[in-house]
Amino acid sequence: xxxxxxxxxxxxxxxxxxxxxxxxxxxxxxxxxxxxxxxxxxxxxxxxxxxxxxxxxxxxxxxxxxxxxxxxxxxxxxxxxxxxxxxxxxxxxxxxxxxxxxxxxxxxxxxxxxxxxxxxxxxxxx
Length: 126
Prior knowledge:
One of its GO terms (molecular function) is large ribosomal subunit rRNA binding. The protein is mainly β. Helix content is 8%, strand content 32%. A five-stranded mixed β-barrel has the order 1-2-3-4-7. Strands 5-6 form a two-stranded antiparallel sheet.
């Protein structure tokens, strides 16, 4: 359950590391796995060793899809899935990922919410 001012870890290679939720899009007051949110980048990868071709920088506003939540998620068979952190992947207006890789595990519910591109880029779905 991601609400206003919620901090999310960005797990793609777009250049951002932390993002803050400023709006939940079409999901009510809180966002869960697979929902779209509007975020502002709070921290990005910068420095002398990082390539200057980062796609996003601090202060940019982007759309993102929530891929993991700390709040327990109930599945149809009765199991509950809970992750250690809240994480998202930055997307453009057409819901295509900005980065070319996803660096960590995502929830399997992304496939059911028509985010199959994100689920296929991830190294593992749980």
